[in-house]
Amino acid sequence: MSWLDWFKGLFSPKPVTRDVSRLDAPFERDASDRPPDVVRETVATSGPLKPGHLRQILRDARLLPKGKRVYTKKRKRLFSALEARRFFSTAFRTRNRNVRDLLPDEAQLARYGLPVWRTEEDVATALGLSVGQLRHYSTHRAQERVSHYVTFTVPKRSGGQRLLHAPKRKLKAIQRRLLDVLVSKLPVSEQAHGFVTGRSIKTGAAPHVGKRVVLKLDLKDFFPSVTVSRVRGLLLAFGYGYPVAATLAVLMTEAERQRVDVEGTVFHVPVGPRVCVQGAPTSPGLCNAVLTRLDRRLAGLGRRYGYAYTRYADDLTFSGDDVGALEKVRALAARYVREEGFEVNAEKTRVQRKGGRQRVTGVTVNEGLGLSREERRKLRAMIHQEDRDGGDAKRSARIDGMLAYVGMLNPEHASRLARHRKPRGG
Prior knowledge:
The protein is an alpha+beta fold and 426 residues long. The protein has helices at residues 3-11, 81-87, 97-100, 106-111, 120-127, 131-137, 169-181, 201-205, 228-238, 242-251, 283-290, 292-305, 326-339, 373-389, 393-409, 411-418, and strands at 17-19, 40-42, 149-155, 161-167, 213-218, 254-262, 265-275, 308-312, 315-320, 350-353, 359-360, 363-364. The strands form five sheets. A four-stranded antiparallel β-sheet has the order 8-9-5-10. Helix 15 packs antiparallel against helix 16.
């Protein structure tokens, strides 16, 4: 220090020395009322410290240097606040940036005969909605003021309750439109016979007629296993861009919700992930499309051991004449199901052999398609009772329906049963 600097220091105000680790208490000015900008910071160096640790001290906003000018340049805004909340919501979130940057593959969409939708505006126009209306139905909210579904339960045939979600009128119209223009055009496997135009329980049961052994498996929680992320991935694979695929996936899925009353205001809060729900028009077609790869793998497994394979909704059926390969088929089928993200319901697994009744999707397949002998005997008794007691409209309608059902499965059986019925006067 030069003598001139020393001389100036005699007449200039000296800064206060403070330990910044104690600045948690309110700042107290000293008697000379010096501003806090001139506080000199010191660092206690007790103990072994590495050089990088010398600056790891408590910083106080009053010790930070003031900017020389006010920064007025506005940052470039990529999204509005509404769009940011939407695109970073739970339903749109993904860790894979490559997926988010995917552009629509119009050639692949055209190859599958699917509508080419590049943006949300295209989807809204195709559905006859404004963009605001589309986002109203395709945004996942953790606190929904109005639920778009009516939830109720129906008893299962095997016991217990089945939870159904029926979309309300406007959303149902949107989903039916999506079913017509999109979901019905998604490719499904040849082995799927449920919810497919031109296929039925008859086509699903026909390959299993006259086989020595029938193996029946059931998928556990079929619809809830198809989550919103699987639907979104399916649409991405067919060629849609990420925003469109995410929007459509939210439109066609829903989470189980619980009513919560907060100070007189009712909210519908999700208690699980968004999934394909029973009751939505689009759920069966989406589930069929998602299971395409599983169907192909199981069909290949059946061919390897000489077994036929079909699927009707969540019912998987194998049949063949090689009884020795039965356990291999059952074990490998369960493994393939797990690998595809589903689970076999072990309680509903059934093995039906030639000596007993063999039924597939409610149809007897021992020697041919149709009703079992016991069921045909009951139907003949109903016809005899109708002829003896006279025509009861309700009972006659039931007999008509059963004869039409048998006629679809086996016209020969239906004609034999109809001969027992006396002609009714007009």
